[in-house]
Specification:
By secondary structure, this protein is mainly alpha-helical. Helix content is 81%, strand content 0%.
């Protein structure tokens, strides 16, 4: 099927592409946060401690982040269909290894394969949407893609806790692996890529050396920009603490504070992605209609984050049901708003000629943050130790203090970024 810059709106296959990509991306977020709900089961099954559990969980983020430049290149070279399909098969292998793992080390290997596999979904999915949908439709379709991911995060709370209690966490991950296998085969056999033009404006195809030199020069320019590293630090810090808490420690913390079992605590954890789904579009609307500035919106959201972690640091161990509900919803909402406005800011301040490259280079940082923080916070909890097989609520105080300091640092960096952007406009 020939490619054109304005895809035909009547072509029904674009909805097949959209549906399959959303279904695959659903499990990307599921795996990103799934270890939080089954953390007590993993601690008991492997007779291990929080540091080892944090390092095991972080393998997802390390492998996901490291491969992003490769995934971006292969999305252009092989096409979205092949990358999403083949990488999903790697995620299937990871699910099987994780479900059958006899030790925490083997679980880390499985978790790493899962991270590597699902790491080949977002970038090629965005490319597929760009191929099949008009430019004026792209933002809407991207938002729906992200929403499908957060639905996966919701599945990784109470529904996952229920599945683990009925079938066991090992069988549950084998079932998830089976579903992923079906989606991988569907992608490879059903989804079609659209051919893109290979000629330059002058009518001749650039040589391989010319393309390589141009890509190398653009990469160096992006990486030598102070603005790039400010954005990268904000992604790693503010998004990193969100995924560290929601993806690993939220359920154990809620269990300890409210004296709940895993299933009931997971219902509270589900409030975080619900808040994310609501907060992402709402904060985007606020930035467009009220604030008129992405950076000002980001600074307000960071102040809210600081308030959340300040409350959890000072009084987290004494929270009651109402306070916990409010904090978790606001936490998800601010994280969703922050992520939405960060990517919108990147698009606004980045020249179109290097926008794709910049996004690809920035994409690892929201994953590198939790990759580092999950192991670090596990070590902090182990300094206090378990009481009756569970980390007490007071043990999380130092973890939340670290999160508070990171948010404070992000607020300073955001103010510096605002100053830099003001100078460039002037």
């Amino acid at each position: 099927m020939p490619y054109n810059k304005t895809p035909q709106s009547g072509n029904p296959h674009r909805w097949v592409v959209f549906g399959v990509m959303c279904s695959v991306y659903f499990f990307v977020y599921f795996h990103r946060v799934s270890t939080s709900v089954i953390a007590p089961d993993l601690l008991a099954a492997f007779q291990t401690h929080a540091t080892a559990l944090g390092l095991m969980s972080s393998m997802y983020f390390y492998l996901y982040a490291i491969e992003q430049p490769l995934v971006g290149h292969l999305s252009d070279a092989l096409g979205p269909r092949r990358v999403v399909g083949l990488w999903s098969l790697v995620a299937v292998l990871g699910c099987v290894l994780f479900g059958l793992s006899p030790t925490i080390a083997w679980a880390a290997v499985g978790r790493g394969f899962i991270g590597f596999g699902v790491g080949g979904v977002y970038v090629p999915a965005m490319k597929a949407l760009a191929q099949w949908f008009r430019e004026k439709e792209f933002a809407t379709m991207t938002g729906l893609l992200l929403a499908s991911g957060n639905l996966g995060a919701i599945l990784a709370t109470t529904p996952l806790a229920w599945m683990a209690s009925v079938w066991g966490w090992r069988s549950t991950f084998l079932i998830i692996g089976g579903a992923t296998l079906g989606l991988a085969l569907t992608t490879l056999l059903v989804v079609q890529d659209r051919d893109e033009p290979t000629e330059s404006v002058g009518g001749t195809r650039p040589s391989t050396d010319e393309q390589s030199n141009e890509a190398r020069g653009s990469t160096i320019r992006v990486l030598s920009s102070l603005r790039f590293w400010l954005l990268a630090a904000l992604f790693a810090g503010a998004v990193g603490i969100y995924f560290t808490f929601q993806g690993l420690w939220a359920t154990p913390f809620i269990m300890s504070v409210l004296s709940l079992d895993t299933l009931r605590a997971s219902e509270f954890n589900m409030l975080i992605p619900i808040g994310f789904v609501v907060g992402a579009p709402f904060c985007g609307w606020l930035a467009d209609r009220i604030f008129r500035s992405r950076v000002n919106m980001l600074m307000c959201l960071l102040v809210l984050m600081a308030g959340i972690w300040g409350i959890l640091t000072l009084a987290g161990h004494s929270l009651r049901t109402g306070g916990m509900v409010a904090l978790l919803l606001i936490m998800g909402g601010t994280a969703g708003g922050f992520a939405t406005n960060m990517w919108a800011l990147v698009r606004e301040i980045t020249p179109g000629t290097v926008l794709g490259l910049t996004c690809g280079l920035l994409n690892p940082f929201p994953l590198l943050g939790p990759a580092i923080l999950q192991g670090w916070t596990g070590a902090i909890l182990d300094r206090v130790g378990k009481i009756d097989g569970m980390y007490p609520a007071i043990a999380y105080k130092d973890v939340f203090m670290v999160f508070l300091l990171i948010v404070a640092g992000c607020l300073i960096l955001c103010a510096f970024l605002k100053r830099q952007l003001s100078k460039e406009v002037a």
